[in-house]
Each structure stands twice: as structure tokens, then as C-alpha cells.
Amino acid sequence: MTDQQPQPQEPSTPQGPSQKSWQQSPQQWPQQSSQQWQQAGGGSQGPPQKQPRNKWKIGCLGCGGLVVLIGIIVTVVVATSVSHEASKKVTITYQVTGTANGVTISYSNWQDNNWSTSQSTVATLPWNKEITSSGLVKGGELTVSTGATGGTVNCSVTVGNGSPKTATASGAYAIASCSGFGS
Q: Which residues of the chain have pLDDT under 50?
């Protein structure tokens, strides 16, 4: 009689449906139950979970980026336009005519980001003054006052090639005021 020695056994591997599950590709893992995963020797944590893709988040980020880009473009265009307009120079023409003598003339304009006013007394008319103005506000105001002797005064303010703005006053201590603003 021959003695048979026990044959060493190979380690057991899962058989049946769980072995099939264990051998499937990672794309199929989320479809397997935790129990099958554990039976196949995958541990107690279960199969790795595939993270869902949030396409709407990517779309929202893209839209947000587009809005920011458009905002930057609009800001650059507006800033360039404002800068161009602010540096643009125009001529303001002030004129006073009439029969009054000894009139007081006051004229104002926006210059170098400040409102500037000048005043003078003129013995006889006509009187003219031209100045160059720049900045976002282009224009001026003109006020003419007759003295105690009265008379008639006509004032006119013209900005650039625009239409003149005019006013007339008559009598003692009469005031004619006109203003013109343009671009």
C-alpha cells in the first residue's frame, strides 16, 4: 500500500457569480453590490464609486467667464471713449452787443476739471471773447447786466460749431443770461 500524502491546496478564489464580478472592468464596478464586492475579496468599503460629472457646473463657469470677459471689454471701450471725449478741445465764443454803456459781463466755463468764472466791466459794446475748453463738460455761461443808465444788451454763447444760445434784456439794471453746452 502506498502512502498518500496530502496534496497542498491552492488558495481558494471566489467562484461563481462573485468571481465574474470581481474580474469586471472598473467601469462596471458601480453596478455591483457591496456584498458581491466583499465576497470577491474587495474589502468592506465597497466598489469605488464613479463621481458624476456636473456638466452644468462647467457650463456655468464658462458663462461666468464669458460675462467677465464682456465686462472687461465694455469697460475698456467706455474708458477709451471717455478719455477721448475728455481730451477733445472746443472753442467757446462769448459775444455781447447792444446800446448799453458801462455793462458788467460775467462768463464761466469748465476748464481742466474746474468751473472757472471771470468778470469785467466794459465801457462800450460790442464785446467778444473766445476760449478753448476741454474735459467732459464743454460749454459756458454768460451774464450781462446793464447799469443805472440802462440800454439794451444781447448775449450769445456758441460752443464749437453748434448753434448760438442767445438772450436779450433792456432797461436799467436789466440782466441777460445765456448758456451753451455741447460736445
A: 13-19, 21-22
Which three cell numbers mark 129?
471773447
pTM beyond 0.90: no
Residues 139 and 150 in one domain: yes
Q: What are the angstrom distances between the C-alpha of 101 and each of 45, 94, 172? A: 105, 18, 11
Q: Nearest 5 degrees, angle CA 119-CA 120-CA 125? A: 125
Please tell me whether residues 98 and 158 are part of one structural domain: yes
Of 87, 111, 134, the residue at which a domain comes to its end is 87
Distance CA 92, CA 75 (A): 31
Q: Are residues 110 and 149 in the same domain?
A: yes
Secondary structure element (H or E) that encloses residue 1, with its range: none
Which structural domain range is residue 105 located in? 89-182
Q: How many CB atoms lie within 10 A of CB 150?
A: 16
